Amino acid sequence: MDVRQQITPLISFAVSAVLVALSVYLLVVGQQLLLPLVIAIVFWFLINVLANLVGRLHIGQRHLPRPFCFLAAILLFFAAFGIIVQFVSGSLNDLGSVTRVYEANLRHHWQSVPFNETIGSAGMSQIIGEWLDISAILTGLALTFTGLAADGVLITIYVGFMLFEQGNFKAKLAALVGDPGRERRVLRIIDKVRSDIQMYISIKLLTSLMTGILSYIVLRALGIDFPEVWGVLIFLLNFIPTVGSIIATLFPAVIALAQSPDGIYLSLTVLVLIGALQVIIGNVIEPRLMGTSLNLSPIVILFNLALWGYIWGIAGMFLCVPFLIITTIVLSHFPKTRPIAILLSSNGQIDLPDETSELLNKP
Predict the structure, then answer these.
(1) Taking the alpha carbons of 58, 62, 63, 65 in that order, is the dihedral positive or negative?
(2) Which among 36, 189, 264, 271 could disulfide-bond with 253, CB atoms 3.0 to 4.6 Å apart, if both were Cys?
(3) Phi-psi category of 179—alpha, beta or left, where left has phi over 0 and alpha has psi -120 to 50?
(4) Cα(39)–Cα(31) distance, rounded to whole angstroms?
């Protein structure tokens, strides 16, 4: 009996490890099928958030009708998304005309570095050469937007069906659960997920927009080429935890260096000013707005970023924090998986009444 008690946890751990490995494999293999669906779910969620914001408006003493709120949210969302895609696509075409000049200036700066021949071994020279190939970087970005546009029709269809069927969600849940008490507790979990993700996206949208606008003003004042492009890019990159902020700081500095053979001081100025904006907004303002409500470990966020970046590339990096929020909330509602949720948290405190988790697992 003692031997069985010792073996059973090992078997459970082995089965769990196999299931996790299989899930990661299926996510990688099924990217073309699953990624448009996940993006559609994100868009559906954002449309609902916009509809709720529009619903808070009122004319006199009367609120706007719910169908009108959804129609306005759908039009606003797809109009904003279409403008961003067209703007970035057009800007990439404009950048293509000056990439050769930028590459020549960057190679000039690299050749002027003392002891660059000693530093630049065969492997290092190849890495530097690839890094200086701006045209290849722009081609990769263009292919990313082209792939997103190709999936646009499928994503739109998914969003349409989810909006059409969301009114029947509670009825389906009631039929699936079969117990009013359990149904209320499942809805409580869903509401927690919705409120936390809505708060994260709202605050991240505000801080990223603030960073993008201020960066645009700084870059335009310094005379950097295409400041509006880098402003939009900084806005988007700030949705990627940690790594996005670093890239959003370094990339404009590299462009400033590439503008002219004498752009070293301009590049350092851009690096200092944009870096200061990132530090102030990302490390001072954003944590104050977020508070401790999300309570996610920074190390876990970085690991999660690397994991989803490996599974789904850039799209996975954008989605990694919402995925981590959902995982932590769901795991925290079950006694057997609550230790994992505690490890994922920042301070080990899980915001959940004990009675909720006990009743949720009650047969």
Answers:
(1) negative
(2) 271
(3) beta
(4) 11
**Residue 288: exposed, middle, or buried by beta-carbon count in 10 A (0-12, 13-18, 19+)?**
exposed
Six token digits for residue 286: 């954003």
Nearest to 102 by CA among 142, 135, 136, 143: 135
- The C-alpha atoms of residue 42 and residue 37 are separated, in whole angstroms, by 9
Is 300 in contact with 340 (CB distance < 8 Å)? no
Q: 130 is written with which tokens?
A: 């690839």
CA dihedral for 207, 213, 218, 222, sign (positive or negative): positive
**pLDDT tens across the length of the chain (363 residues):** 455 555 666 676 677 778 878 888 888 888 888 888 888 888 888 888 888 888 877 776 777 788 888 888 888 888 887 777 777 666 666 666 666 767 666 676 666 666 555 544 444 444 444 555 555 556 666 666 666 666 778 888 888 888 888 878 777 777 777 777 787 878 888 888 888 888 888 888 889 999 999 999 999 999 888 888 888 888 888 888 888 888 888 888 888 888 776 678 888 899 999 999 998 998 888 888 876 666 788 888 888 888 888 888 878 888 888 888 888 888 887 777 788 888 888 776 666 544 444 444 444
| CA dihedral for 109, 112, 114, 120, sign (positive or negative) | positive
Helices 227-237/66-96 angle, 10° precision: 130
> What is the C-alpha separation between 1 and 299, in angstroms, rounded?
40
Q: Which two tokens stand for residue 298?
A: 């920074």
**What's the DSSP call for residue 282?**
I
Tokens for 72, please give them: 């306005």
Instruction: Compute CA distances 112 → 105, 155, 252, 260, 264, whole Å.
Output: 11, 49, 21, 14, 11
User: Residue length, the chain?
Assistant: 363
DSSP state of 347: S
Sign of CA dihedral 48, 49, 52, 53: negative
Q: How far apart are CA 189 and CA 215, in angstroms?
A: 38
Residue with tokens 């709120």: 69
